[in-house]
Amino acid sequence: MSARRDPAKEPMMELPVLDGQEDPGGKILPGKDESPRKIRARLSKTMLKTIGSHQLVEERDRILVAVSGGKDSYTLLDLLHEARRKSPVEYELIAVHLDQGQPGYDGGALSAWLEEFGVPWEVIAEDTYSAVLELTEKDSSTYCGPCSRLRRGILYTAAERLSCNKLALGHHRDDALETLLLNLFYAGRLQAMPARYRTVDGRFEVIRPLIECAETDITAHSEARNYPIIPCNLCGSQDKLKRVEVARLLAELEENNPGLRQVMLSAIGNVRPSHLLDREVAEAWDEAAGRYKPRR
Ligand code: SF4
Fold first, then answer.
1. 135-162 in b/e burial notation, b at 16+ Cβ within 10 A?
2. Which residue has the least CA distance to atom 6 on ligand 1?
3. Whole-angstrom Cα distance, residue 213 to residue 272?
4. pLDDT, tens digit only, all 296 positions of the chain
5. Which domain holds residue 229?
6. Is the shortest distance between the CB of 123 and ligand 1 below 6 Å?
C-alpha cells in the first residue's frame, strides 16, 4: 500500500516561526520594511507550497540535506527541520557537509552550529580541491563543472551509506532563472532547474524545496539567523562570471519591471509545448494533451 499523499487534498502545513526568532530586537532588515519573522514565514510558506505541489517529501523519506556552508543550504536545513516538527508526514533529515580541502577552509563554526542545531550530521573530508586542479590541468577545463560532479558523487555515496532515499539541495528561484538564461544565451537550450528529479542511475531523488523562494528573502533570513557562512569560492575559481552577469541582468530588469523574476518563475511552470520549435516535445505533447486541461 502506497503511503503517498495527494498534496492537492492535504491542508497546507502551517509553520510557526522558531522560538527566539521573532524579530529579535525589532530588527528591520536592510532595505526592507519587513521583520525577519515575516520573511521567514514567507520562505516557509513558499517552501511548503513547492513541497506539496511537487510531492517532494513523502512518508518515511530519509533525506540527506547537503549543507555547503552557504546561506541557501543553512536556510533549507533550518526550514525543513521546522516543517518536520509540525508535519503529518514522518521523515528524517541528515545534514552532510563536505570539506573539500580548499585553502583557508575552516569548518569549525559550521560544525559547532550543526552540533547545536539538533539534526544528525556529519562532515566528510575529501580533497576534491587537488583532484579538480589535477583534472583541469590535463584538459584546461574550468573548475566548477568537475568540482560539482565530484561533490555530487561523494554525496551520492554518503546517501547510500546513510540509507537516504533523497538528497535535498538549496537551489532557489534566482538560481533557476539564472540557469534558464545561461542555457538560453550560451547553450542554446531551454532548460531551468526541476524541483525534483531521479538520478541517472535511479538510486536517489534529488529535491529542491527552495526552488520557488526569492534569494533576497534567503539572504535577509540568513543575516537575521547569523549562520556561520563558508564561502564557496575559497578555491579562487572565476567560473561563475557568466552567472554573475546574468544575475546582474536580472537585477536590472527587475529594477525597471518590479515582479519580473516572479513572472519568469510562473513562466517556467506554465509551458506551451506546442509553441516551441522542438518537434519531439511537440509530438509528445500532442500524444499527451488529451490527459490535461487546455492551456490558456
Ligand atoms: S567556486 Fe570553487 S568550490 Fe565552488 S563550485 Fe566552483 S570550483 Fe567548486
1. bbeeeeeebbebbeebbeebbbebbeee
2. 144
3. 24
4. 333 333 333 333 333 333 333 333 333 334 457 999 999 999 999 999 999 999 999 999 999 999 999 999 999 999 999 999 889 999 999 999 999 998 889 999 999 999 999 999 999 999 998 888 888 777 656 778 888 889 999 999 999 999 999 999 999 999 999 999 999 999 999 999 999 999 999 999 999 999 999 999 999 999 999 999 998 777 776 566 788 899 999 999 999 999 999 999 999 999 999 899 999 999 999 999 889 888 76
5. 33-235
6. no
The CATH number that applies at residue 191 is 3.40.50.620
Domains contained in the chain, number:
1
Ligand 1, from 102, 132, 136, 147: best to mutate by most atoms within 8 Å of Cβ? 147
Which of 136, 239, 243 is the pocket-test mutation for ligand 1 (most atoms within 8 Å of CB)?
Answer: 239
| Residue 141 alpha carbon to ligand 1 centre in Å | 13
Measured distance CA(148)–CA(132) in Å, rounded: 10
Grid coordinates representing 271? 509551458
